[in-house]
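Chapter summary example.
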Amino acid sequence: MKRFEFAHAAIEPGALAAPLATGAAGGFAAFEGRVRNHNEGQAVTGLEYEAFEELALAQGERIVLDALQRHGALHARCVHRLGSLAVGDVAVWVGVAAAHRGAAFAACREIIDEIKHRLPIWKKEHYASGASGWVNCERCATHAVAAPAAPQFDYSRQTALPEIGASGQQRLAQASVVVIGAGGLGCAVLAGLAGAGIGTIGIVDHDVVDASNLHRQPLFTMADVGRPKVEVAAARLAAYNPSIRLLPRALRLDSGNAIDLIREFDVVVDCSDNFATKFLVNDAAMQAARPAVLASVYQYEGQLQVVRPDTAGSCLRCQWPDATRDGLVGNCRQSGVLGPVPAILGGLQAMEVLKLLLDLPGQLRNELLLIDLLDHGQRRLQAPRDPLCAGNCRHVAMPRHPGAAQDLDVELSLAAAAREGFRIIDIREPYECAAAPLPLAGQQALPMGRLLDGDLQLKPGLRYLLVCAHGVRSRAVAELLRSQGRDNVWSLRGGLAAGRD
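The structure predicted for these 501 residues follows.
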């Protein structure tokens, strides 16, 4: 028995309630929302219901399950009508069986309230006057007092701009954009594009919502923790602007799917938090002949770049032929981030997308925009096309997933590593070392930046073990040094936490 489903024919409450009966249920509560014959003084002749079914079914199932668990109920079911309904027809039915009536009443009320407020379901009322109007599910006929029909999404302030107008708005409605990553950058980009009326928006992310995301990812709430980001983001955006088409893809972008996926859209926006994905998006966009809008954030700073698959445009590899190793620069989890920083950079990414689609002036071309939000500094650096990359920008070979370097990671405690003769090098920043010093005498502290500048002289015949907080930075630095021919460097797997006795 499904907990939540849609019905395209008449709902029969008795038939739905019967399977919920059980000897353990001392209380049963049911709710029926029916079509009224009036709304705000107008005579209603019928309704039509539509829904974003794929998202609504998954989210509806979760709403019912959450209510069951929260109130300790035994069984629950919700059915919502779609299609055309007449006056008196049941539009939505909820039934809950519980050991006690209080739990049944509470769970039933929570389910109908959450269904009405969270699911992408809309109704259209038909009036005796011949008029009709769409009403969001939050204002459906089950309310004690119905609100007037909701207006259509209004772009008038946008179309008032002489560079846009009705024709520009139509161009946006016909455009398609895919956003890679639904984090801090992605939430800002998605909100900006949805509000602008981009006709089709793809959302690609394999992750679920975590409580640590919320301060900079306002599409999500505490109630969404543990849920797939693409599912939640698509539902929020569908409720925000019902006129757009959303294509959520809960997957990890890789060299096997990137080109085909990006080729489905007019523009790709990289909102990922790691270098491997950024270079993957760059390479796939060049091969798919699609412009890419890239951004990254580090603490209070950010950078923005637009790469274009034309004969004069530069790509990411024109400046960095080899993909930067993840770990050499900390991500938000490792280095921290203030919420408005990715919001501002994401807003700028959305602006560059709109400038591309509307052919507005001031577009970034072969440039890198650097922003420091502490002192509001901005710099536009030239990022010209590399002549050596000129013939390959659109035909660059897709990178293969790198395998683990042979014998690179060491899984020992720090004390055991020292006993085996490793020279321990703590590459954390000074403030990290002061807060959590290594529990070992004789180690050397050398911050990653100084080590990369050549301050560490690696002596032949000695073995060096790099240590950081979680093993990410030490692994990246060890890989870099190995690529330079220094084969007497290792990384402590898992970092300091794993290396303590």
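To summarize the output: Residues 53-71 form the longest helix (19 residues).
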